[in-house]
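user: can you give me the structure for this one chain? tokens are fine.
assistant: on it. calling the predictor now.
[tool input]
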Amino acid sequence: MNTGMNLARDLVQSARTAAPRRSLAAAGVRAKGTYAGEGPAPARPVDATEVSLRQVMRHQAFPVCVVGSAIPPAYANPHAPGPLPAWASGLDADGAWPRHRMATLSSFTSVSLSPPIVSFALRHPSRMGDVIAHRGDRRFLVHLLAADQAGVSQRFADPRTQTEVGGDVQYWLHGEMPVLKGCLAVLECVAEKGTPVEVGDHTVWFGRVVRVLEVDKEKKPLLYVDRKYTTVEEA
């Protein structure tokens, strides 16, 4: 499986500390029920196959995407009765209550063209996954980033800034979902029934593409390989 969340993990760690990456054994697995980047990470025995697979996948180039959706109105309200779930609570950098969430990943792929189905994987549990799952329409956007959008990728790879779209919004779809400007393409999708599927420490999402919102054929894709951003060369 494409270990897409390696991108987010690498970027979050580089943003938070200049110290060397922890070893696989030190990284271990998160405490059950905690989101990525939170809670203790108890050590576990190193699996040689896991290490080898990580090394192989690290040298494969993957497209960088940002998945986003709007937090359901019932949860995007600090005065709602009862405690709010973690994925829908907390003020953003501007002191406003979050109404959307975005997440960077590199596990995006096309599964079927007829009907048009795409997929991606999220670390389990995932705030982004919880937002989509709690929407009645299970609708979300996939932004395929362009070569000059490394900064956008870094912002939404960090859970602390996944609700901050800043000045990067081109328009608001259905009045609630931010469509980022400058992307290679933007897809409007609806999660398929029966998804997500839990596989190992990730959940795999399948979404039907209901509309291709934006396409810029002049732009090159943003790729991630060997912990670095890159793009394709001219043909």
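assistant: here you go. The chain is about 20% helix and 30% strand. Helices lie at 5-16, 24-27, 48-58, 127-133, 150-157.
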